[in-house]
Input
Amino acid sequence: MSLWLCLRFDQLPLQCLDRDERQPVVVLAAQRVICANDCASALGIQPGMASATVRALAADEPVRLLERDEQAEQSCMHQLCSWAYGITPSLCTWQEHCLQLEVGGCLSLFRGLQPLLAEITRGVSSKGFSMLQGLAPTPKAAWLLSFADKDSALAIDQALEERLAPLPLDHLAPVAQGIDSLRRAGLYTLGDVLALPPASLSRRCGKAFTDFLQQLLGQRDDLQVSFTPPASFTDAVWFGYEVKTCDELLPTVQQLLQSLCHFLRNTQLRTNEITWQLVGVDHTLLDLRVRSASSHSDWENWYQLSCIHFARLQLTNGVEGLNLECQDLQLGQQESIDLFSPRSQREPLAALLDRLRNRLGLQAIETVDCRDEHLPEFSVQVGNELTGSRSGPRNRSVQRPFWLMPQPVPLRQQGENLYWNGVLTLHYGPERIEDNWWRQAVSRDYYIAADAAGQQYWLFRDRLERRWYIHGVFA
Amino acid sequence: MNEMLEQVIKRNDTWRGRRDYFRAGGASANSNLHGAQGLPTGYSTLDAELRQRGWPTDGMVELLSDGCGMGAMGVFLPAMEQLSEQARWQTFIAPPYIPYAPLLAARGIDTGQILMVHPRSREDLLWATEQALRSTTCSAVFSWLGAQEYRYSELRRLQLAAADSDSLAVLFRPNQIQDHHTPASLRLQMCEYRKVRILKQRGGQQVIDVTLPPEEDSPQQPQLWELPQNPGAGQPAGAAEYRA
Output
């Protein structure tokens, strides 16, 4: 059996703009009130009033009049859709500010209706929205029942007709025509209409109205275009007060990352870059970009990486909101660690790399690699890119030092002696290395030398320049 | 015995210098001093003197040397070769130079596992070392602390991180800090090539000189220690002529 839950965000025009509860706030569209907060309602301000009436009612009290921002409403609805996609895959928006969720298919996932409703209530209130709920076998009935009182709105075990009967017909006005003629005929509630024979109702109000009623009662299919998740992720938390230290942000960071990873898991996507946006009290924006070497959807990993960035952040002024954005999403494979490994490795190898790179910078981490080159400095390749595992040539059995200097360093030569932290004596050599004749010819004689303490070095004499250099250390 | 004293002695990080204490059966069968198996060093003489018969992987190793190491890395090459099987990182934190990759490859060490980290400050160095130790993704962590001063508490953090992990943790420090206290479970000094002195060893013998036997070097592999027999040893042929 399909079961639809309608979430009606009646205060959305207000809540997407301002959540101040200390002073009256009113949202106007075309000089008419469409939404008012509790303080304003207490003054007697109601939707539909003209702005002049609002001013008259408020008298001395300062009332904030806000213009309706439909774009902000849409982006809020979008966020709510993304969030609700984690609860059920079949959902759609309906009318103004309503979400229709098909929850019949996910009852066993949430272990019953009550835990599901609790989860939804918790999710919505954590986002700072207020909502009204309606629960019914059809989406339209669920929507209508969201206007009913709280007891009957969720009373799924009662007969649908009985629950709909007391609802006034006025609610149908946005979706059905011919309500006025019914009202003139003395019909005021849905119960009155449902009691009439459908054939005569169809003659009086047209086929569209009877179709609507059939969809309402589930006698006719009601197909809606289902929501498809967006190609990028954005979510925001609005504190409503000033946050002065980064530590206070961390619980919110955690919460947003959980919602991101929830989204990533639902859409089977991965990401390797997220962007934090801190909204200051003075409306300044501060962007923090966090990158990872491998794309993944593990929120704890992202939390650790974000913490590295937040720990270094110096907040100059208070933060009022936190946005999380993630533009680049890819399909990815989950990297897993060897389950049967006898060692205690608990995270993928790239995790360490990410943490080091995020704090020390990309350039601070290097890997080494062998190259099949004759000149020592070319046979070692140092890079920032991660390379796979490999084994190099294993047949060399000549004397090579453990440490190679990035560049040969010229040695000080005085008379017959060479100096490098003291006088050096040559012990072994020469070994001639000549190469690179096609570009800049190199001809060197390599020697092993030791200083007074016995430390051995790898030196060479450049035969063309006639100078001595140190190139490595035996350690 | 005094109860508090007993508690202190039971702690794993309390260093008790007397070897015979353990030989007398002081450690019970389930204590963590019992049966801990170290990572073979690749040198029988060194294994014989180390309490765990190898490098301790439940604590950090401090290696003191002068100048450029005096063969300090050579002591760990056999261990690095063994650890390469684990396919985890072998992290070099603040290394003095670049490890010569063909040499590592010739010794059977997977160069793809070598991760070089270049921290810019002392704090970053300690942080990176601790991260590497705590991350469980490193089979070995080599950290060059340099000649700077470190507080005991800072080093102890590293020791605790090393004790929790199963990686080989090695700190390279200069000879002049020899008199400073250390929380490390093993402190060695490189006196010269092929000669290691055990300065401190938790629960084992100390101040002993160990010579690494030449016959245990793997044949047909580049060696770091001895100079091969060279016809022109001493004064290389032709060197004087070049200098002229």
Remarks:
- The longest helix of chain A spans residues 246-267.
- Residues 246 and 310 of chain A are 6 Å apart (CA to CA).
